[in-house]
From TrEMBL:
Name of the protein in question: GIY-YIG nuclease family protein
Domain GIY-YIG per the UniProt entry, residue ranges: 2-78
Source lineage: Bacteria, Pseudomonadati, Bacteroidota, Cytophagia, Cytophagales
Similarity comment: family membership: Belongs to the UPF0213 family.
Coiled-coil segments: none
């Protein structure tokens, strides 16, 4: 049975790259060697593998990759640190005009 991986690389410039693969070692090597000159990581090497997560089904891996790509830097750093419990608070709107944060109704 194949295993699929969603992974996050930390690039030399401090940015993060999220991808999906069925062979983590090979894909990391490709990023490291700069196999594809059009890849985001090509000009941001060296890269460091900072997170990976296994999936049994490719559709689940692709869905999670898309989700992570849409996350803020803080949410990505939370899962890199293994702090999955921090995701919900980081997803909540912190804008002062948000109804939960707006105390105008109390006056």
């Amino acid at each position: 049975m194949k295993i699929y991986y969603v992974y996050i690389l930390k690039c030399f410039d401090g940015s993060y790259y999220t991808g999906v693969t069925n062979c983590l070692e090979r894909r990391f090597a490709e990023h490291t060697w700069g196999i594809n000159v059009t890849c985001y990581t090509y000009t941001r090497r060296p890269v460091e593998l900072v997170f990976s997560c296994e999936f049994k089904y490719i559709n689940d891996a692709i869905a999670f990759e898309k989700q992570v790509k849409g996350w803020s830097r803080k949410k990505k750093e939370a899962i890199i640190r293994g702090k999955w419990n921090e995701l919900k608070p980081l997803a909540e709107c912190q804008n002062q005009t948000h109804s939960r944060n707006n105390n105008a109704d109390e006056n």
